[in-house]
Amino acid sequence: MGQTCCADEPGDTPGTLTVSVPASTAPPGTLMSSLRGHWTRKEDRMALGTISANSMDWESPYQHQPSTMWEAGPETVKMILAGKEYSGTVSLSENPITILWEDGEVWTKTPS
């Protein structure tokens, strides 16, 4: 984590990363809209951050820029974190909603 990139195109700013996301990212009424809200890690209930329309805004202790997120299937979301793409399986039937990430970490949506 904490990767840095270089300005290699005219107008690029050192230390920034531009990510392209499919145009269909988070239209109203989709999986992403169900995920909007505050999230914690299930294992220790550590506050992680807030998912908005197409990003995860991390709590300040994580020192991450917002991570781009998008719907990749009916029950699948993807996220870019520190330049790496992660895939998660969403369980809308659980109360509260959870995301099981490919590395085994489970996120739980905090009830509103």
Structural commentary:
The chain has 112 residues and is mostly beta strands. The chain has one domain: Lipocalin, CATH 2.40.128. The protein has 1 helix and 8 strands. The protein has one helix spanning 31-35, and strands at 37-41, 47-51, 55-58, 67-73, 76-81, 84-91, 98-101, 106-109. The chain has an 8-stranded antiparallel barrel with strand order 1-2-3-4-5-6-7-8. The radius of gyration is 15 Å and the shape is globular. The chain starts with 30 loop residues before the first helix and ends with a strand. Residues 1-9 and 16-28 have low confidence and may be disordered. Residues 1-34 are annotated as: Disordered.
Radius of gyration: 15 Å
Give the neighbour order of strands across the main sheet: 1-2-3-4-5-6-7-8
Q: Could you please say which CATH topology applies here?
A: Lipocalin
CATH class: Mainly Beta
Q: Span from first to last CA?
A: 30 Å
Low-confidence runs: 1-9, 16-28
CATH architecture label name: Beta Barrel
Q: What keyword list fits this structure?
A:
8 strands; eight-stranded antiparallel beta barrel; Lipocalin; disordered N terminus; globular; 38% strand; 112 residues; mainly beta
